[in-house]
Amino acid sequence: MDDWRGADGYWPAAVVFDFDGLLMDTESTSFESWRYEWEQWGLSLDPATFFADHGGDLTEQRYAELAAAAGRAFDKNLSHRRRMAYRDRLHAGLDLLPGLRDWLQQARRTGLRLAVASSSPRHWVIGHLGRVGAEREFEVFACGDEVAAPKPAPDVYLLALARLGVTGAQAVAVEDAAHGVAAAKAAGMRCIAIPNPFSPVPRFAAADLVLGSARQVSLGEALQQLPAGL
C-alpha cells in the first residue's frame, strides 16, 4: 500500500467527488448544446451569463429565455428534441477527465473510500459513469434528487458523509465550481478545487488547494498538501 501521509499525519478516510465538470465535462456539453440551439434561431449565447452560482436545474428558465429571444416563431418541442439529439452526440465522446482514472486507482491502492456528491439526479450521474465503466469505483452516491436543496447548500455532502459513516473532518471533497466548494466547506470538509473552464480561478479562495488538472499531481500528493486543521 502506498503511504502518502503528510508530515502532520493527516490522512482522510474518504474522498468525495462532484460529478458535472469534475469527473466528466458535462458542463461543456451542456453549454455547447444550448449554444447550438440558440444558433438555430439566429442568436448568440454568452457563456458569461449561462452558468449559475448554484447546482439547481435551470432547464425551464433557459427555454423561457430562448423563447423570449427567438420570438413568436419559437417551438419548444422542436427545440428540445434537436438540443437533446445534439447533446447526446457530444456525450458519446465523453470519458473521465484527464488524470481522474489515475486518482481512482490510487485511492483503491491506499484503501480510500470513494463517493460522489452531485446536485444532478441519480440517473444522470449513474448513467454517465456506467457508460464509461467507472460506476463501480464509488461506494456511495448522493444526488440532487435525494435532498432538499442543491449546492451551495451542504445537503448532498452531508448525505454522502452519512452514507459513508464518516465526519466532514474525515473526508475530502473534490470540486470544479465555487458553489460546490462552498457546499463542501459548509459540510465541514477540506476541499480540493479543479476549476472547470467556465469558472474563474480567483473565485476559489475558499478551497484548500487549487489545481489546474488531476494530471498535475497524484491524488496522494494533492492530499499531502491539505492543511491538517479545518
Descriptive notes:
The radius of gyration is 18 Å and the shape is elongated. It has 230 residues and is of the alpha/beta class. The protein has a six-stranded parallel β-sheet with strand order 3-2-1-4-5-6, with helices on both faces. It has two domains: 14-25 and 96-224, 3-Layer(aba) Sandwich (Rossmann fold), CATH 3.40.50.1000; 28-91. It is built from eight helices and six strands. Helix 7 (178-186) links the parallel strand 4 and strand 5.
CATH class of the largest domain, please? Alpha Beta
CATH superfamily of the largest domain: HAD superfamily/HAD-like
Report the oligomer: single chain
Largest sheet: 6 strands, parallel
Q: List the helices and strands in order.
A: EHHHHEHEHEHEEH
List low-pLDDT spans: none
Looking at the structure, the CATH topology of the largest domain is Rossmann fold
Rg from alpha-carbon coordinates: 18 Å
Give the proportion of residues in helices: 25-40%
User: DSSP helix count?
Assistant: 8
Structure summary, number of beta strands: 6
Instruction: Give, in spatial order, the strands making up the sheet with the most strands.
Output: 3-2-1-4-5-6
N- and C-termini, Cα separation: 27 Å
C-alpha geometry: elongated
User: What portion of residues belong to β-strands?
Assistant: 5-15%
